[in-house]
Amino acid sequence: MSPAAGLLVLLVAGHFLADFAFQTRRMVDSKKRLGGLASHGLAVALVQAAVAWPFLSLGAAPLLVGLAVVHAGIDRLKAMADRPSGLKAFLSDQAGHLIVVIVVWMAWRRLPGWPGPLHDGFEIPLETWTFLAVIGAAFAFNWTGGAVVVAGVLDRHRLDQVTADITEEERSRGRTIGILERLILLILVIIGQWGALGFVIAAKSIARFKDLDKRDFSERYLIGTLASVLVAIASGLSVRGVLRWIGWVG
């Protein structure tokens, strides 16, 4: 794996970790205020610095600060939009962040002395460090980002109205089931156990068997489940592609 490829993978992984593992609900709710944006921007800079530690230098510090500032600016624009939530807003927001990451990556490679030495005492091989970052980012995205995607898909079809009468506790259990479903499927895809995917979906369907007689509920259940499965499979295949690229899988 070349240093340029390693840096790109680490920066992308750092973005997903910062946005989905280290962004608190309080940060999300306060993005219309400067304090909330500043807290999230600081978290982005710190997480990216930690993940890209093998290549970190004083020359890269302004790039990370710029990345954090632009990241916060994109989030500000999203928060001030007419419709800040929803699938389209989420995908546009993520696309903007990833474009900024690529720009920073291109600028980083042009720093004097690139790629720079791996820090003294950093005994973890670059491939291993990258592997850990990629796996962590995939789990973080499926935990939080996957729920946003599924909610966005359901919202486009007005299917959240079907469950308007259920309690918040029941909604919480449903979200937990969705998270566990995606994490299990993600693991199975990464290790190549495709035959086991059906057992996970079947187990979920058995628990809802009686409710599937209701057409509205069954349509909501099917769309939500397929969206959740698609997120897990797509991210799992992406992880396998990256791991193949860096030499972890054949």
3D architecture notes:
Helix 1 runs antiparallel to helix 3 (34-51) and helix 7 runs antiparallel to helix 8 (197-207). The chain is mostly helical. The protein has two domains: 3-123, no CATH class; 135-245, no CATH class. The chain has helices spanning 3-20, 25-29, 34-51, 61-80, 87-108, 126-156, 168-190, 197-207, 215-245. The protein is built from nine helices and no strands.
Provide tags for this entry:
250 residues, 72% helix, mainly alpha, 2 domains, single chain
Number of helices: 9
Total DSSP E strands: 0
Helix content bin = over 70%
The proportion of strand residues reads: under 5%
Radius of gyration: 20 Å
Shape: globular
Helix/sheet category: mainly alpha
The end-to-end distance, rounded to whole angstroms, is: 14 Å
Q: What's the order of the H and E elements?
A: HHHHHHHHH
Outline:
The protein is an all-alpha fold and 250 residues long.
How are the SSEs ordered, and which strands pair?
Elements: H1 3-20, H2 25-29, H3 34-51, H4 61-80, H5 87-108, H6 126-156, H7 168-190, H8 197-207, H9 215-245
